[in-house]
From TrEMBL:
Pfam hit, one: BFN_dom
Residues covered by the UVR domain: 154-188
Domain BFN: 3-135
PROSITE patterns found in the cross-reference section: BFN, UVR
Organism: Odoribacter splanchnicus (strain ATCC 29572 / DSM 20712 / CIP 104287 / JCM 15291 / NCTC 10825 / 1651/6)
Name of this chain's protein: BFN domain-containing protein
SUPFAM superfamilies documented for this protein: Hypothetical protein TM0160
Any GO molecular function: nuclease activity
Organism placement in taxonomy: Bacteria, Pseudomonadati, Bacteroidota, Bacteroidia, Bacteroidales
Superkingdom in the source lineage: Bacteria
Length: 188
């Protein structure tokens, strides 16, 4: 089975679901962005790991890693293997000695643990194509004035993030890629 390695680009508040966040993954060539809606606790856990912050007490994902480390079990990879009705399915590949153990996982938990283990995150080309937003591809289509306004008007990072969530939710991928480019230029 062909697989594509992914990386975590960041998190943003999801306007589509109250109390939810969008975890943004990308392929290594930066050709696709994959937004995944996750809950607040998982977003917090991922954000803390991305920012290398220390907490006074271990979070659930820290506790899982400490337990696995104590049992000499290592996480080798996280694999997003299925997308069905907007739900991503993942599995974790652990290793103890020479034995490999696959465990089904929510994608948000798989990513949170992969970040703690600094191990690779993979998916299939089909999932990347189906769920991903193509970035930097010329379509030759004329942009509408509304879309041109998106890239010409100065917006705050927060406003652009909201606009990106809305564009993804409305499946306006060209608009989403332009907003993403603006955020990247702003260094956010």
């Amino acid at each position: 089975m062909d697989r594509i390695r992914l990386k975590v680009l960041g998190l943003s508040y999801s306007m589509s679901q109250a109390g939810a966040y969008a975890l943004i993954l990308a392929d290594e060539q930066d050709m696709h962005r994959i937004p995944i809606v996750i809950g607040m606790p998982e977003a917090q856990s991922i954000a803390i790991q991305l920012e290398k912050m220390q907490t006074q007490r271990p979070l659930t994902h820290d506790l899982i890693k400490k337990l696995a480390d104590a049992l000499q079990v290592t996480l080798k990879e996280a694999f997003i293997y299925r997308l069905d009705s907007g739900i991503f399915y993942s599995e974790l590949l652990f290793e103890k000695d020479t034995q490999q153990i696959k465990i089904d996982s929510r994608t948000s938990d798989a990513i949170a643990l992969a970040l703690r283990y600094d191990c690779p995150i993979y998916s299939t080309p089909e999932i990347v194509e189906k769920a991903g937003i193509a970035v930097g591809q010329e379509t030759g289509q004329t942009e509408s004035p509304e879309k041109e306004e998106v890239v010409q008007q100065p917006y705050s990072v927060q406003e652009l993030t909201r606009m990106l969530d809305e564009a993804v939710r409305n499946e306006e991928y060209e608009k989403a890629s332009k907003i993403r480019d603006l955020l990247k230029e702003m260094g956010k």
